[in-house]
Amino acid sequence: GRIVEPVRFQMRGVATEAAQALVRAETILGEQAAPPVAGLARTLNLLGALAYKQGDLAAAETHYLRSLTLLRSEAQPPARDVARLVSVIPTSTDAAVLVDAEEAVAECIATGVLVARGDAVAYRHELMRRAVEDSLSPAQRAALHRRALSLLAGVDGTDPARLVHHAGLAGDVPAMLRYGVVAAARAAARLAMSESAEVVTPS
Fold first, then answer.
1. Alpha-carbon distance 6 to 27, whole Å?
2. Do the strands 114-117 and 120-123 form a parallel or antiparallel pair, or are they unpaired?
3. Distance, CA of 151 to CA of 38 (rounded, Å)
4. How many angstroms separate the CA atoms of 179 and 165, rounded?
5. Angle at 131 between CA 129 and CA 136, to 5 degrees
6. Burial code of 101-114, b = ≥16 C-beta within 10 A, e = fewer?
7. What digits encode the pLDDT tens for the residues 45-61?
8. Nearest to residue 7, comparing CAs of 22, 21, 26, 24?
């Protein structure tokens, strides 16, 4: 679809080249042109990163939210679903969790919303992740945490503390207790190993 309303950007603290790019983007949108969504979203995300580096958090958030608005209205459901799932998984999302969603992941990376980090993907910036997560209703967030819990539980080597996190936010008390016992036992074992490895220096 076409974007009818011109987009107004905050340019405070943005470098000259970035400001010029913003003006061009605003002109394109104001003329109701239909540029490739991926290219425009990537531009907005890069401008957001630039503003953030310059300490202008308000401008950075504006750019990111504009990008997300575009993606929310234009992205295909599989990519939108992946973006929402990754938004409730802190730090990064393992490739094993996103198996069978390769095309949707590729679309999210192409738009600049997600970036590859080794064998995982993550949001380009925490502001973006929070913006997507905050756009979800409580019921949507709980459902996504249930899905994340189910997927992560099937990945060998997943830290049980991560499972406790998702179980708690999903409202799954039995799972929270079950994985909480495992996480506590693992933490106790690590503490015991650390204490046994301490070297006492004579005074």
1. 8
2. antiparallel
3. 28
4. 9
5. 100
6. beebbebbbbbbbb
7. 788 888 888 888 888 87
8. 26
Instruction: Tell me, yes or no, if the pTM score tops 0.90.
Output: no
Question: What tokens appear for 7 in the block?
Answer: 């987009």
Q: Pull the structure tokens for residue 187.
A: 């933490």
Place of tokens 């936010």: 169
* Six token digits for residue 10: 């905050």
CB distance 73 to 110 below 8 Å: no
| Strand order from edge to edge, sheet including 114-117 | 93-94, 120-123, 114-117
> Angle at which helices 57-74 and 37-53 pack, to 10 degrees?
160
- The average confidence (pLDDT) of the chain is 77
Indicate the helix (H) or strand (E) that contains 121: strand 120-123
How far apart CA 114 and CA 89 sit, in angstroms, is 13
pLDDT of residue 86 exceeding 50, the answer is yes
Residue 41: what residue type? Answer: A
Alpha helices in the chain (DSSP H): 16-30, 37-53, 57-74, 77-87, 102-110, 126-135, 138-153, 160-170, 173-196
CB-facing half-sphere around the CA of 35: CA atoms within 13 A? 16
